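Troubleshooting log. The previous structure file for this entry was overwritten by mistake, so regenerating from the original sequence record. Sequence copied from the archived sheet and checked twice against the printout by T.R.
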Amino acid sequence: MPGEDVVAADVEKQLAAPMPWIGMYVAAASLICTSAMAADTFRGFRSKKHWFPSKYFTLNATTLTLLAVSMKLPLDLTTRMYAATDRLAKVSSLALMSTAIANFMTSLGTMDDREMLMNVTALAILVVTVIVNVCVQIIQMRQFLNGRKMVVEEIIAVAVMLVSLVMMASSAVMILATKRYLKTKYHEMLQTASDEQIENLTFDKLRLMIQKYWVMAETSNPQFVIARSVTCTTSGILSLFVALVLLEVEIRMVMEYNILHQSISNYAWSTKLILFTQTIGVMVGTIAPASRWFIAINNFRSRNESGNRIRSAFTVERYWTQKMVDWRQGSLSFRIRHLKSRKFLHDLRGLFLKLCIYFQHVIVSSSKLVLLVSVCVTAPAIACLNYVRSLTRQKRISHSVSSRDHEVDIRGYVMLLEGEVELPKETLESICREVDEVIRKGKKQKSENLLKLLEKSRSFNGVTEFDSHKIPGLNSRELPYCWSLPVATLTSIALAFPNVRKHKSKLLLNSVAEGLRLMKLIDKALDKKGRLANVRTAADVVWVGVELYHKWQDKDLRETSLKGKNADEILQQLRDKAEKTVVEFRRDARDCLMRNPLNWPTKVIAANSMYRIATTVLLNRSDKTDEELFEQLSVTIADILAACLTNLGHVITMKCHRNAIEEREKSVRKAALLLGKTEEIIALLQQRELPVSAPDQAASIEEWRALINQEFISKTNIEIGVSESREEHADVKSEG
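Regenerated output below.
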C-alpha cells in the first residue's frame, strides 16, 4: 500500500541518517592504525633499525578490533555503493588489511605459543570473513560486473590478503621452533662469552663485552629473525604490490571521474574521509615491509658470490617444519580408551600434519623463488644505487668502520639459524654503532657532583667505621645493612648539623642523590634472593624523606639544625628517637616473624640504623667543630660510595647475562647506558687498591666489613708477632 511504502521509506531514511557518522568512526579507527604503523616506522628510522621492529602496531585484541571497524565497508552487503569513490574506498580498505598483516609479521616474535595461536586464529577469522563477504558481493552481482568499477582491483586485493595470511601462518609455525633453538644457542654462547671474562675490567674491556652481548641479543631477537625470513620478504613484496595497485586505480579514477563528487551511498561525505585516511595508511604502512624486502635483496646479492644462489632457493631448512614434525610424532593431547579409535585419530592427525608440512615446503620454496626473481629483476637498479651509496660513504667508512680491530671477534657472536648466511658487514656495523650511541648518551648523563665527593675518599675505612662493634644492639640478632642504608642515614645526620655553610649541605645532598641512584641498582643486582628487600626499602623511604622534605621520620632536619645548639645535642635527639622507636616496636610485637629483624617494618629498620650510626658518631666525635664533623661524615659517605661502586663492572656484566628472550636487548641497553654514565667513576676507582684480597668475594657491604676486619686482625697479629720477636732478639743480645 502507498501509506506503508511511505512509512518504509521514512524508516529507511531515519536508519540511514547516522551512516556518515559511522563512516567517521571507521575513518577514526583507520587513522589510529595508520598512526601506530607510522610510529613504528619513525622508531625504526630513528634507531636505524631498518627491519622495523613492532612496538605500537602489534597483533593483539586492540588492533584486531580497530581493523575490524576499518573493514566496515567491505563487510557491508546491504548499502548500495556503486559510485567511483564508494568502490575506491572498498579497495582501499582491502589494501589496508593486506598492509596491516605485513606490518603484524614481526610482532609474532614478542608472543608466547598460546598467545600467538589465539591472535593468529583471530586474524584468520577476520580475514576469512572479509574475503567471504567480498566474494558474496561479486557472485551475487556477477551479472552486473561489466558495469561495475574496479572489480579486478578488488579481486587482486582479496588475493593478496589471503596470501599474506598464509605467509603469517607460515612464519608463526617457524618462530615456534626457532625460539627454542635460539634460546639453546644463546645459552651456549653465553657460557662461551662468560668464560672469556677476566678480572679488573676496564672501560674498553667492558665496552667490548657489551658489544658482544649486544650482537648476541640483537641477532637472536625473534622479531629480527622473522624480518630476515623469506616469508616476511614475500609479505613486503605483496604489500608494495597492493600499494601500487591502489595508487594506480586512484590515479585512473581521478583521470576518468571526479572522485570527490562521486559518492552516492548512505555514508555520504565520510566515504571521502575513509578513502583519504586508508590511502595514507597503506602508503605509510608499506614503508616497513618494503624496506625489509629491499634489505633481503641486498643480503641475497651478497650471498651470490658464494655460488649458492640456485641451491639455497630450493632448500627448505629444518626449522620451518620442525614444530609440525614434533606434533606429528607426539602423542595425542587427550586420552581415548579405545585403542583403535586412538590409533585412527593419531593417523588422521598425522595425515593432516603431513599435508601441512608439504604446504609449508611449497610456501617456503615459493617465497625463495619470488625473492630470487625479484633479485634478478631489480639487479641493474640495485647495482647502480649501491654504487652511488658506496661513493658517498667511502670516506666515512674508511675513517670509522675500518678502525674496528675487534670486528672478527664480534662477528663470531652473531646468532644465525641453520643454513642462514652471515649478516652483511653494514648490518653488523650498524649494530655496533648503536652500542656506541647508547654509551655516548650515557656519557651525557655523568654524575659530576658524585665525582667530586668520591675524590674525598682516600681509603675504604668508612665501610667499617660508620658502625662500631662496641655498641650493644637493641636486638639479639644483628640487622644486616645494604649499601644505601648507611649512606642515607649518614647524610640525614650531616644535613641536621648547625653551623655548616648552606652550599656545602646542598652539594652533599646532590652528590649523594646521584650516588644513591647507582647504589640502588647495585643493591638490587647483588640481592638476588631478595633477602634484604625490606632493608633496601627502608633506605629508599629514608632518602625520600630527606631529599624531598628534609625530614627523618617526621623530624624536620632544618628545624633541628636551627634550634640545635651543637652537633652533640642533635645526635643525641636523633639517637633517642631512633632507640625509642625500636624499643617500643619490640615491646609491642607479637608476631613470631618479627623475631627476625629482616621482617621488621621499614620504619623500625631505619630507626635501628640511625641508633647505631648516631651512637658511633657520638663515640668518635672528640673535640671537632660542627663543620669538621660534617667533613668527616662526608669522607665516610665517600668511602662507602667508593666501595659500593667498585661493583659496577660486576653489575654491568650481570645485566648482560639475562637469558630471557624478552629481556635480553633491554637489559644489555641498560648496561651500555650505565657504562657511559659511570666511565669516569670506573676510571677513578681503578686507580685505587682494594683492601680485600678477593674482591669477587666482597660484593655486599657486610662481606666488605667482615673481610676488612679479618685483614685488620691478621695485620695486627703479624705486627704483634714481629714486635715480640724483636723483643726476644733484644733479650738474647743483652744476655750475651
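The beta strands are 551-552, 555-556. Archived copy saved in two places this time.
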